[in-house]
Amino acid sequence: MQVAGCRLQVEIRLGPPARRNLQPATSHMPAPSLCLFAAEPLDRCSDARADPDWIAARLADPESLLLPLYKGDPLVSGDAPVWLATAARAEFPADAPVVFLGVARGRAHFALDASAAPSPESAPFAGIGRYAPLREAAGFFSDDALAVAGQARWLLDWHRRHRFCAVCGAPTDMADGGAKRRCASCGAEHFPRSDPVAIVLAAHGDACLLGRSPHFPPGFLSALAGFVEAAETPEACAARELKEEAGVTLTDVRYQFSQPWPFPSSLMMGFIATAADRSLTLDRREIEEARWLTRDEIRALLAGERREDARLPPRFTIARRLIERWAESL
Ligand SMILES: [Zn+2]
């Protein structure tokens, strides 16, 4: 297929088809497809990408691939991202940011920010698919495609919002294929931001604690979560959040696994914790409702039981995976 003089590649998959599974991972090394956005299909080539000539050569390589995104939403056709030949850059504004994502099967993958167009419908190549909301694409992309689209959204969003040096205020330039920005004025280097979040499933005996934020839909329950503060460990954050939001004292906090969440830059770190008792004192500004559900109740819900007063988080969310892991444990 020829578009604007360049080869167009549609529905190239980075790896095998969707292979999400609900098998419990081993405790030390969770499967990469454990949670949405958590697969790692690309070699990020951390050393090579620091060489501008290497990046330029990859961009010029006709085998390299380019995913355009409009304000973080990838170009989609069918149920897969549209990977263009890198020559398709000519169809976008010359200053459209391009970031290097990594290499898979010998082919470099790049992402391009198409956000300069007035609308997603008018952005280049919209006619061969659509720029689909990433949250929607999460419902049909393969694990690998979703992880790469999430990485692209994360990076491009960071570059859009960090064009000036936080030290001296001068404009900064992209470096290392987009893995960082550098200030030409003061020499400071700036790296993509990750906002760590501790998400905690507290358990006491045969029950676990689920809660509902005021903005959750009715009946929807999840593990409690909060942002890690300055100079705070995620474990300390987990204990603090449970104390502040639910009045629960944790006696043991155990890390399980993590999930990148590119809306825009959260790194969710999942914990299962032991509570000292089941007494609750809720901070109603943060938690509208919280209650202890027994393992039998949780297992029934995981098996598909419908309850208006208790709806679990969707599959492949880290909260769901924590609940599953606890329910599967003895
Ligand atoms: Zn500076």
Automatic annotation (TrEMBL):
Membrane-crossing segments per the record: none
Reaction it catalyzes: a 5'-end NAD(+)-phospho-ribonucleoside in mRNA + H2O = a 5'-end phospho-adenosine-phospho-ribonucleoside in mRNA + beta-nicotinamide D-ribonucleotide + 2 H(+)
Q: What is its EC number?
A: 3.6.1.22
Top-rank taxon? Bacteria
Q: Which cofactor does it need?
A: Mg(2+); Zn(2+)
Record has Glycoprotein as a keyword = no
Identification of the protein by name: NAD(+) diphosphatase
